[in-house]
Design brief:
178 residues, mainly alpha, Arp2/3 complex 21 kDa subunit ARPC3, 9 helices
């Protein structure tokens, strides 16, 4: 039973569902500059930084799919964009040897901005009616800054979720066996 609780997919669901509830209730009502803060996107990008491109894509896909289940947007659109965001963050982070906190914050900001800007393009590609305006710049800026503020704790949480040891932590016998 304990081994089941260590499975990253189950941990992802255990963290994703409460964050989804927070996203669709509290964060939907708190709108700095009229923009909804994207906590599910933050976890997707943090998953890429914590676990690399493949685990980031998996985390982004699962979290995006959970988000799609409660929205009226086409099923799979958030899963696609968040999966790409997790992959992008993991790929950018894997290009560096040392991972200082400022770089983690910067990667979260860049990946959040890119995925927020790509979402309306992806929606337009599948036939959704999208109006492109200068408001997109405000949305990208607010989402990126909000995600950058919470980047370091989110990456720590996603290291636990994806069962990835901290980069400076020594491996124990249990971590090495899993």
């Amino acid at each position: 039973m304990i081994e089941l609780l260590r499975h990253p997919l189950l941990r992802l669901l255990m963290i994703g569902l409460p964050v989804l509830a927070l996203q669709t209730t509290l964060l939907a009502d708190m709108r700095p500059a009229g923009v909804v803060i994207q906590a599910m996107l933050l976890l997707s990008v943090a998953g890429g930084i914590a676990g690399g491109p493949e685990r980031g894509a998996l985390a982004g896909f699962v979290l995006g799919f959970l988000f799609d289940l409660v929205l009226t947007s086409p099923l799979g659109l958030h899963a696609l964009v968040y999966g790409l965001a997790g992959f992008l963050a993991g790929y950018i982070n894997s290009l560096t040897i040392d991972h200082p906190r400022w770089l983690i914050v910067l990667v979260v900001g860049v990946a959040s901005a890119a995925s927020t800007a790509i979402y309306p393009v992806a929606a337009a590609m599948i036939g959704e009616e999208v109006v492109f305006s200068t408001r997109l710049i405000t949305v990208v800026a607010v989402v990126s800054v909000a995600n950058m503020v919470l980047a370091v704790p989110a990456v720590g949480l996603m290291r636990w979720v994806l069962h990835v040891p901290a980069p400076d932590a020594p491996l124990s016998i249990r971590d090495d066996a899993v």
